């Protein structure tokens, strides 16, 4: 079963922009990739015409890269009920990111649901629903993949029930899917290392496993239920290599893309130089195919 879609987050900068992202993915032996349409920490964006999208897709096609996932920037927080101006920025900027996702030829935009920033969680969930209802349309050409969160601070989406509540409250809920992050789910208290099938059964009962449109594949530096959100390299954390592979090769999700977001590692020659681990991690995971 080595027809899995697997890749990693790739950069997009310099003169080559998205063409460079596609080249980076190919260098890892990937057949999927994820990018941000600009810096995840701010709203500065290059014009879509400068991103070399067509050339990037041509390169993807030539090198067997089948799937592109876009990640929304971290600064989008639809759950902020404390500062109306932050909510308005989040809503307006998310609408722009949806347009850019479609223009880049992707049908998945991963979104952190938001944070309550000290307000009641129910209020934050209600406002996330309101924001999505203001933005989503019935004929939108991409889905918003709500990411499962670790529960750090007042993050929304650290329980399957909270993800389900958002989906149930949104008018065009068929435009919503789920990004299942292995580190986040484990840190939130779901034991995918010891009872993966039990966790998937629980997710299916509460949300519906057909909603999962992308996985973030990360090990965890912290223990079960730690609510820390610190990614570890595959096999170097508390989830473990075997459990990670059980997720990647789960028969219910063969066609769902798996995206690595693991930390860069120190160069053997110079510990101060950090290198991407993705080529080696993808190769090791492929070698473990059942």
What does this structure look like?
Helix 1 runs parallel beside helix 2. The N and C termini lie close together (6 Å). The strands form four sheets. This protein has an eight-stranded parallel β-barrel with strand order 1-2-3-4-6-8-9-12. The protein is 34% helix and 17% strand. It is built from nine helices and 14 strands. It is globular and about 50 Å long. It has 290 residues and is of the alpha/beta class. The longest helix is centred in the first third of the chain and has 20 residues.
Could you give the topology of this structure?
Elements lengths: L5 E4 L8 H10 L4 E4 L17 H10 L4 E5 L12 H20 L4 E4 L2 E2 L5 H15 L7 E5 L7 E2 L3 H10 L6 E6 H6 L8 H11 L5 E6 L1 E2 L10 E2 L8 H8 L9 E3 L4 E2 L7 E2 L2 H10 L3
Parallel strand pairs: 1-2, 1-12, 2-3, 3-4, 4-6, 6-8, 8-9, 9-12
Antiparallel strand pairs: 5-7, 10-11, 13-14
Helix pairs in contact: 1-2, 3-4, 4-5
Compose a concise summary of this entry.
The protein has 290 residues and is of the alpha/beta class.
Task: Give, in spatial order, the strands making up the sheet with the most strands.
Answer: 1-2-3-4-6-8-9-12
Radius of gyration: 18 Å
Number of separate strands = 14
Strand content of the residues, in percent? 15-25%
- CA-to-CA gap between the ends? 6 Å
């Amino acid at each position: 079963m080595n027809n899995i879609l697997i890749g990693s987050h790739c950069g997009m900068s310099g003169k080559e922009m998205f063409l460079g992202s596609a080249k980076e993915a190919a260098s890892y032996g990937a057949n999927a990739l994820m990018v941000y349409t600009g810096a995840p920490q701010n709203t500065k964006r290059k014009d879509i015409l400068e991103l070399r999208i067509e050339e990037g897709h041509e390169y993807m096609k030539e090198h067997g890269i089948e799937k592109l996932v876009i990640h929304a920037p971290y600064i989008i927080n639809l759950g902020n009920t404390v500062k109306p101006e932050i909510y308005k920025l989040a809503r307006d900027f998310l609408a722009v990111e949806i347009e850019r996702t479609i223009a880049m030829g992707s049908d998945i935009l991963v979104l952190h649901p938001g944070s309550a920033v000290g307000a009641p969680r129910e209020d934050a969930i209600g406002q996330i629903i309101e924001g999505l209802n203001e933005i989503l349309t019935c004929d939108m050409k991409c889905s918003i993949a709500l990411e499962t969160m670790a529960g750090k601070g007042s993050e929304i989406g650290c329980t399957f029930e909270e993800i389900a509540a958002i989906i149930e409250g949104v008018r065009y809920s068929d435009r919503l899917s789920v990004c299942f992050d292995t580190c986040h789910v484990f840190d939130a208290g779901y034991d995918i290392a010891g009872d993966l099938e039990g966790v998937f059964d629980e997710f299916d009962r509460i949300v519906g496993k057909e909603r999962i449109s992308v996985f973030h594949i990360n090990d965890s530096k912290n223990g079960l239920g730690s609510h820390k959100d610190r990614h570890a390299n595959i096999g170097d954390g508390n989830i473990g290599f075997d459990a990670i592979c059980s997720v990647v090769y789960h028969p219910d999700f063969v066609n769902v893309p798996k995206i690595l977001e693991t930390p860069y590692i120190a160069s053997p020659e110079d510990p101060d130089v950090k290198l991407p681990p993705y080529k080696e991690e993808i190769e090791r995971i492929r070698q473990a195919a059942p």
